Amino acid sequence: NMEGRKVNAWAARDESAILSPYSFHLSRKTCPEDVVSRVLFCGIDHTDLHQMRSEIHTTSYPLVPAHEVVGEVVELGSNVSKMAVGDTVGVGCIVGSCGECSSCKSSIENYCSNRIFTYNDIYKGGRPTQGGFSSAMVVHQKYAKYNHTTFRYS
Q1: pLDDT at res. 149
Q2: Any alpha helices (H) in the chain, and if so which ranges?
Q3: pLDDT (tens digit per residue) in 22-53
Q4: 32 is in which domain, residue-wise?
């Protein structure tokens, strides 16, 4: 179980956007719909840089950026059946949503007014989200993209 496990990361501490080593704990208990992954790769793009500089929205520091993430599944919640430990998953810019609104029910969660961004956001319960410049991530299974026929890392 990854709950309470120390995660190593790179974080911006202020608007200078300089990344430095940072660690935090996966404090949330793994929920039945969760996928925990060990980060293998992640990208960085202009959105990350602007957010690190607090040029879009107000940035909460320390900020662990990156929303284009590839990871290896290391733990699954009890209701996750389409993936297995060892599978490769991708995580984008959203890690959660309400699941109840018309946008969520139409599979356009990016329009959900309660969507949860991969970083610089807050999970239900108050814990800040942290991005892919970290050694591990926890996301709802809907936001861990997996295709067993085309998405393999070896």
Answers
A1: 60
A2: 46-52, 102-105
A3: 999 876 667 899 999 999 999 988 999 999 99
A4: 6-143
In a domain, 150, yes or no: no
Domain count, the chain: 1
Amino acid at 130: Q
Burial tier of 38 (Cβ tally within 10 Å: 0-12, 13-18, 19+) = middle
Q: Give this prediction's pTM.
A: 0.87
Q: Domain holding 107: CATH number?
A: 3.90.180.10
CA distances from 19 to 16, 38, 154 (A): 9, 20, 29
86: left (phi over 0), alpha (psi -120 to 50) or beta: left
Report how far Cα 40 is from the mean position of its chain's Cα atoms.
Answer: 13
CA 129 to chain centre: 7
Q: Are 128 and 4 in contact (CB under 8 A)?
A: no
